[in-house]
Design goal:
Layout: H1 3-15, H2 26-38, H3 42-57, H4 63-78
Length: 84
């Protein structure tokens, strides 16, 4: 598996928006990184992140928080290949 992909999944897990611990977000992390691999627009990615976590936890994360992790992931994607 691509090291950029692995690093991005780990970054999403460590983001831990609900403070459940990084191990709790395996599905969401994979879903988020899939979106990042397909799109480059951090604002669009942020809305998708917000939706992914809402679908899992029925709680809305502030778009600013989602935008922060989206920008970080887009930067990570730019620094290494992330083909899935």
């Amino acid at each position: 598996m691509d090291s950029a992909y692995v690093r991005m999944v780990q970054a999403v897990k460590e983001w831990d928006p609900f403070k459940f611990g990084p191990e709790f977000y395996e599905t969401e992390a994979s879903d988020v990184v899939q979106i990042v691999s397909e799109f480059d627009d951090a604002d669009y990615i942020a809305t998708k992140i917000q939706h992914i976590y809402f679908m899992s936890f029925e709680e809305v994360i502030a778009i600013e928080k989602c935008r922060g992790i989206a920008k970080k992931l887009v930067e990570m994607k730019g620094s290494g290949s992330c083909e899935i």
